[in-house]
Amino acid sequence: MILTQTTAIFLDAYRELNAKKLFWLTLGLNLLVVVLYASLGINEQGVTLLHWKFQNEFFTTDLVSKELFYKLQFTSWGIPIWLSWATAILALVSTASIIPDLVSGGTIEPVLSKPIGRVRLFLTKYLTGLLFVGLQVTIFSIGCMLVMGIRGGAWEPKLLLAIPIVLAFFSYLFAFCAFVGLMTRSTIAALLLTMLFWFAIWIVNVGDAMMIAQREGSILQVEDAQADIEKQTTFANKRIEQLREQGKPIPGEDGDELTNGYTDSLEAVNPALKLSRSRLQTAQEGAETWTNWANRVILVKTILPKTQETVALLERYLITQEEIAVLMGMNEEQAARMNRNEDEPAFADPRAPARVEEVMRKRSTTWILGTSFAFEAFLLLVSCVVFVRRDF
Amino acid sequence: MSAVIDIQGVEKTYKRRIKALRGVDLSVGQGEIFGLLGPNGAGKSTLVKIMMTVISPSKCTGTVLGEKIGDKNTLQQIGYLPEHHRFPAYLTGRQVLEYFGAMSGIQRKQRKAKASELLELVGMESWHKDKLGSYSKGMRQRVGLAQALMNDPKLVVLDEPTDGVDPSGRRDIRNILSHLKDEGRTIFLNSHLLSELEMVCDRVAIMVHGLVRTQGTIDELTADQSGFVITTKEPIPEHASSELNSLSLPEQAEQTSADTIAFKTDDATKVQPAIDTLRKHNIVIQSAGFKRPSLEDLFMQVVSTDHGDKPGAISGARSSKKGAKS
Predict the structure, then answer these.
(1) What residues contact residue A81 under an 8 Å CB cut-off, 6+ apart?
(2) Which of the residues A97, B57, B94, B190 could staple to A187 if both were Cys, CB 3.0 to 4.6 A apart?
(3) Any chain B CB within 8 A of the CB of A157?
(4) Domain ranges of chain A
(5) Cβ within 8 Å of residue A316, ≥6 positions away
(6) Which pLDDT score, from 0 to 100, does residue B35 have?
(7) B104 at the A interface (CB within 8 A)?
């Protein structure tokens, strides 16, 4: 009986989506994006789109392989723009009405009078929303995989990881949407509040990225200052040696007093050391402050679902850090050699983005998915309790 | 006759202060058509929803089909047509039946056969491919009735089944109900249409202010108010009235108006002396016959004599707001 009921609910959900035309509209848009992806190409001169050619210095087959080119297109707009935003928005618009429609007066009574438990009914309805996204992402991912294989010559089955990853990402939002839909019985309220919630998560993510960039920038400043102190100390020691050899007095030694607020002989013989030490202290204080702030933001993030990080997992699995470094065209040493104004904020350090990327990539999949699913499970639990206890 | 519905002391209080039901006792026997009636806000739909597990009672003892109220498995043997139902407009008539059939756990093959059978029964076979959105209210009601029968229920609970249905449709529904009764099914009807109930119900209960005020067969409930009534063409003259009063007529005989005499007896022989007296005075008798109060008369009497406290009235407002109208 469970199978019969579950199949009926899924079939009904499909019929509802079909009636709204949103299923086919979204499918059509997905296929259009796949066609667009297939129409892109690369040759010795640059990038091609159908029969149009666009000359480009970097994107040529001499520098970037066809395989990497298609991989890059997928990770640069396929994941962050299409799968993370467009698909999710379309899916939310399509599925936001599932729970409000279920609990509306006149609809819920005949369903509740059937031999199906309320928890199972609610969760099955919730899953129908995920099925919608699952079907769309599956079609999109298979389409992109075929394009990558046929046009790029690389068969990348990892691309299919987009299905569970995007599904997980959408499930966080849909759990919230279902909860609001149940509480308010309004599709508009469910949709708008979910968008607002998503925006709030995005703000926290931006805050997190900024705090980490500041912290990593400050740590780089500390490292720079320490290296500088080491250099200045070596220089000061050499200078003291020279003074000794010349028989000249060394400030701070043999009864010669220190002046100008120097703390030791090294500073006295090399005033730049004092500046370096002061810079180190400032950098250390900055690093400590930004570490505290970054930790606070992480605390907030731990409670909330990790939408951005979840989708970024796909990029993490598809493109290695080495490939990113190559693509960036500069490594940390090159960046360090660049001249930069010391008054610039820590995050402006050109080496900071790479460090931020490294920190982000170091966040464990267990933490990202585990805490997000915990949030989702909590919302579903509350929703189930409300649904079971409510009189309709 | 074993009881299909046997409930005692059903109470429902909303938000700890609004009492919709205040201890309902009800018993419905197997194979009978039972009618539940009452004014708006009496708590009828709340009671039905409690039986169908849509609402949870604050207090309740008793059984439906031998199982405690709230038992989900029992619902497999109950068919339910809610009041103000809104079946999905994107489904066709047949799809509605198959969807709710599947929700009752019926297998695909049986569902298809049963849906065809029921569409024919409710006269919707030629509309089965059209979407519900294009149906009239009466057509939706017919499909709703059919969906309530998809699982071959032992108990059929119908909340305002003739709502929006035209006279011929009502007759069709009455025929269906008789057919279901002949098959041995129990039918629980909740309706405002007293004439409809009177025609089909074996027993009725009248609910007012969250309580069942009276229940029984219509004959039982109207027995003490039935009797012969004689109406004359012109007002009965004084001298004839005096003679009538001197006759040994049934105790409760009374002249209800200038031209009407009512007798609270079902024995025709006891009325003959009065007819003889009237004829002796050349008074033309317009009509003479046995009269039983209608269900509407009974209903109005129960409702008008009920002076229940306020909560029932408040519960009516609450019911309307929550879509739990009676």
Answers:
(1) none
(2) A97
(3) no
(4) 2-200+370-389
(5) A361
(6) 93
(7) yes
Stronger pLDDT, A315 or B33, i.e. the higher one: B33
Cross-chain Cβ contact A4/B323 below 8 Å:
no
What would the mean pLDDT of B106-135 be, rounded to a whole number?
91
Among the partner-chain residues B91, B102, B322, the one whose CB lies closest to the CB of A15 is: B91
- CATH T-level fold of B3-218+297-322: Rossmann fold (3.40.50)
Pick the CATH number of B227-291 from 3.90.1310, 2.60.40, 3.30.70, 3.30.1380: 3.30.70
B80–chain A Cβ distance below 8 A for any pair? yes
Question: Mean of the per-residue pLDDT values for chain A?
Answer: 86
Beta-carbon separation of B103 and A19 below 8 A:
no
- Please say whether the beta carbons of B148 and B159 come within 8 A: no
**Residue B102 to residue B107: CA distance in whole angstroms:** 7
CATH 3.30.70 location in chain B: 227-291
- What residues 360-389 of chain A have any CB closer than 8 A to a CB of chain B? 389
- Model pLDDT for residues B55-84, shown as the tens digit of each residue: 999 999 999 999 998 888 899 999 999 988
Residue B313: CB atoms within 10 A of its CB come to: 16
Q: Give how far B320 is from chain A: nearest CA, Å.
A: 11
State whether residue B53 sits within 8 Å of chain A by CB. Answer: yes
Q: Is B13 on the interface with A (CB under 8 A)?
A: no
d(CA A178, CA A189): 11
User: What is the pLDDT confidence band of residue A318, given thresholds at 50, 70 and 90?
Assistant: confident
pLDDT per residue as tens digits for the range B31-42: 999 999 988 888
Q: What is the largest CA-CA distance in chain B?
A: 80
**Could you give the ipTM of this predicted complex?**
0.79
pTM: 0.81
Q: Write the burial class of residue B154 (CB in 10 Å: 0-12 exposed, 13-18 middle, 19+ buried).
A: middle
Residues of chain B with CATH 3.40.50.300: 3-218+297-322
Structure tokens at B287: 């009509």
Spacing of C-alpha B75 from chain mean position: 22
∠ CA A114-B78-B172 to the nearest 5 degrees? 115
